[in-house]
Structure formats: structure tokens, C-alpha cells
Amino acid sequence: MASTFKTAADVKRNTRQRLQYIEIMAFYTGVVTRSDVAKSFGISDPAATKDLKLYNELAPDNLNYQHQVFGFVPTDSFQPVFADLSPKVILPMIASNLAVVAEPIEELSIYSIPVETLPLPVRLPSKEVLAPIVRALKQGKQLRASYKSLSEREDIQDRLIEPHAIVNTGLRWHVRAYCQHSYEFRDFVLSRFVESELSNTAAESSPMYDDDWTETMTLQLSPHPKLSEAKRNSLLIDYSAAGDVIELDIRRALIGYSLHRLSVDTTTDHSLNPNAYQLVLLNRDEVEPFAGWAFL
Question: Of 6, 23, 73, 120, which is most buried by a Cβ count within 10 Å?
């Protein structure tokens, strides 16, 4: 039976959200299957098949079915019809494990409570650069990339990397990957990727070999000793500390970013302004070997 929808604009909200998911999944991971749609929205396989059929009716040039992966892959002429595929929209969805894009209702506040966020510079690549990175991560493949390092010794370099995770530090996004150039696991800032291309070669590395990713440590933090006793006590309450120490379990690879984000005074003599750097690190000797760049 033919679809009752003549154009994309005719699609109702709930159906549109599932079509958005199909579009996002196909473009960023390289394949979308019936089971993907069914699991993500808690619907039956026949209902998921109906959604995929509808999508192909409304966007006939976007997807091709491939028996090898039992799913639909994006065509070279793929153009988004339902979803905003910009990285600033998609990366928070991936990080929050959301299946649909949050849409405002007539641009009105649902709860009538004013909320504001800090305006920050956009530090993201284009969707054409980000998608191969995500596909390499999802499919366990190698990625060929042109990358601009901040090192004065390096200009744009061609690299072969094997991504295994994406990280949001709160100020920027980066991908954790094994680098075939340096023979080590490193962090690559997403906004410094100039070009990227998915390779057909399977990744040789695995997150299990990335010790700084798999191993965790406990940061032991304390209010800055130069603060007044009242301010120190307030900070302990603020961070829900059990006793006089604020403890934070974290992957070793993320220690430096957390110290920066929390504005921790990492000097040996705690010489920074305590009103700007309200916390100090108690177990410095234990932590510093894994985040030397974050210490002053």
C-alpha cells in the first residue's frame, strides 16, 4: 500500500523523529538496520521496516541496501532531509545517548524557567570530516586524516589513526585514537582535522591496549589552604565531600582535562589565586606522571 505521506513536511512528529534517527545513523555510522530502529524506539521489526520503507520513499536517492551488512548505507549523493547533521547538534546527542534531536515547541519555554549557557567558540570540524571519524570508531576501521598539530615543528600532516572513543572536555571535543605515526595512543582535537577518509582496513589496535584509557585513578582534592575556613567548609559541602577530601575517580587519560576544568591549583607551593583556583591536588606525586602537561 502506498504511503499516506506525500512530502517530508507531511510527516507527523513521532514518525519524523524516527526518520531523523535513520538519517543520523546512516550518515554518521555508515549503516542503519531494521534492528537499530526497533531497539532505539522500542518498536516491532515490522514497524521499523515500515519506517525504513517510508524514508526511502521520501528520500529515494539517499540510501542503498547492502546484503553484506543487512542494512542501508548512505549513497554518494546523500543529502539530509529530516535531520540537522551539524556536529554541534550530533555530538551532544551521541554523548547523551539520545535517539532524537531535542526540538523546541514553537520556540516557547516549556517550564517558563529562564536558563542560559555560556557562549563558547565553536571548535568542531565539518560534518563531512566528522562522519568518517565516527564511522571508523563504530566499524573498527583505520582512518586516514590530515591533521593540524599545535606543535611548532609540525604543519598539516597526513596520519593513519585508529579511533576508539570521543571525549567532550566541556571546552572542546577530541577523539582518542592509536596513531600509526607515533606508535602510541593519543588525543586528537576534532577541530584540527582538515580532512578525513575511512579506510577499508580493520584497526589493529584495541581500547584494551590503551592503558591510560582502561586504568582509572582517584583524584584527591581539597579546598585551597589560603581560603578562609568558612569558604573551605562551603566548598566541601558544594562538592558533597565525605570528610575533608573531595574524591573523583577518573580515567588516567582524562586527568589533565579534569584538573583544568575544575581550575585546580597544580603548583607545588599553591601559589595561584585561591579565589580563581579554589581546589588543590593532595596526591600530586601519584597523579603527575599521567598528566604532566597540566602541572605548573
Answer: 23
Q: Where in the chain is the domain with CATH 1.10.10.10?
A: 8-96
Rounded Cα distance, 290 and 272, in Å: 22
Measure the CA–CA gap between 164 and 181, rounded to whole angstroms: 16
Label residues 36-55 b or e (16+ Cβ within 10 Å = b): bbbebbeeeeeebebbbebb
The answer, yes or no, to whether residue 2 has pLDDT greater than 60, is: no
State the pLDDT at residue 104: 54
Residue 171's pLDDT is 87
Q: Are 185 and 213 in contact (CB under 8 A)?
A: yes
Return the CATH number of the domain spanning residue range 127-210: 2.30.30
Q: Give the global pTM.
A: 0.88
Residue in 126, 135, 2, 110 with CA at minimum distance from that of residue 58: 2
How deeply is 175 buried, as exposed, middle or buried, from its count of CB atoms within 10 A (0-12, 13-18, 19+)?
buried
CA distances from 256 to 52, 70, 143, 212, 266 (A): 44, 42, 26, 12, 10
CATH topology of domain 8-96: Arc Repressor Mutant, subunit A (1.10.10)
Could you give the angle at the alpha carbon of 32 between the alpha carbons of 28 and 35, nearest 5°?
140
Q: How many CB atoms lie within 10 A of CB 193?
A: 23
Q: Who contacts 73 (Cβ-Cβ below 8 Å, separation ≥6)? A: 26, 30, 31, 63, 64, 66
pLDDT band at 116 (very low <50, low <70, confident <90, very high): confident
DSSP per residue over 191-255, as a string?
GGEEEEEEEEEEPS--GGG-HHHH-EEEEEEEE-TTS-HHHHHHHHHHTT-SSS-EEEEEEGGGH
- What span, in angstroms and rounded, lies between the C-alpha atoms of 158 and 192? 12
